[in-house]
Amino acid sequence: MNPGPRDPERSYGLTIETHGLTKKFGRQVAVDGVDLAVPPGSVFGFLGPNGSGKTTTIRMLLGLASASAGTVNLLGMEMPGRFHEVLPRVGALVEGPAFYPFLSGAANLHRLDAATRHTVPATRRARVDRALDQVGLAHAAKKRVHAYSLGMKQRLGIANALLSHRDLLVLDEPTNGLDPQGTREVRHLVRSLAHNGTTVFVSSHLLAEVDQMCTHAAVMSAGKLVAQGSLADLRRSGGARIRLLTPDGGPARNVLVGLGLDCKAGDAQPGGETLLAALMPASGASSARIDGSPQARSGEVLAEDIVAQLVAAGVRVRGFVVERESLEDRFVALTGEGFDVAQ
Ligand SMILES: Nc1ncnc2c1ncn2[C@@H]1O[C@H](COP(=O)(O)OP(=O)(O)OP(=O)(O)O)[C@@H](O)[C@H]1O
């Protein structure tokens, strides 16, 4: 979860691994000591607000920009030292593809494939057809690219990245500038690409997009990696609080404080007073029960313990809800800024 210090065990089998990756532009530190760990087979969302350092990181991963410090391993090989071995196994879409508008989609792919070292001319036609089919453009193969929508052009860019079998696809903001239909098409495509075992690393500034497409995510904020892990872990890592409605505000407050919880007054309700308390005890306080259960291990006081103690103290409970922080709340807390959560 936490980017944390280097863990020597974690490097085994990672598709992308960086340690202390840093890029400075003059005095500005655009990427600051990033430790990425991208597991094989994941659809990995690289999430962060505009200007947080995503594109710069991606450029360093692919050897398009040199790092000021730190190391990059792709597919277990050091970059940029083993560039020639690594790059044929990596497809990339960075800063939009450039196509000849007067040529068809298929003709553009033929030209791009012919310009790539290590490609076999005899299988070119079949590979172009398969890539167009994979991105849902078989029907528009013979259409000139100037008649393509933005979404179709973006899918053609992905088709270009798919001309050979790839172990890793790196896509920088593939839905940027697309209309809702194009966005849906590209999101669907990204999800389906991972089914054949390709690891997909995709950057986005949209939380909802990462939530829909990805199995894992890393969050960038002002050049730093502030969290990474599976989406399930990221969700679980959010804090929780209780919302209690009681006519016995004073005694209820005493019970919550006695359990080490910070207690705040919520809205007054007809049934009494609303009290809010985070389940994580304030620092220095001890938890109500340490019995090895998952909740207790996380350090949070268990909701059932709170209810039991309230009842034992004679507090009348009219309402009791556990509210867990949403992924959106979590990411806003992590990045310290309003996160773009648009669809
Ligand atoms: N070539 C460059 N020279 C100077 N500063 C740069 C250069 N490239 C990027 N930066 C700066 O580095 C920071 C990170 O930029 P980067 O493009 O990596 O962010 P990003 O997260 O990809 O944002 P966006 O989604 O807007 O592209 C920004 O402050 C940007 O202005």
UniProtKB/TrEMBL annotation:
Keywords: ATP-binding, Nucleotide-binding, Transport. PANTHER family: ABC TRANSPORTER, ATP-BINDING PROTEIN. GO terms for molecular function: ATP binding; ATP hydrolysis activity. Residues 16-247 form the ABC transporter domain. Pfam families: ABC_tran. The lineage of its organism: Bacteria, Bacillati, Actinomycetota, Actinomycetes, Micrococcales. It comes from the Bacteria. The keyword tRNA processing does not apply. This is ABC-2 type transport system ATP-binding protein. Belongs to the ABC transporter superfamily.
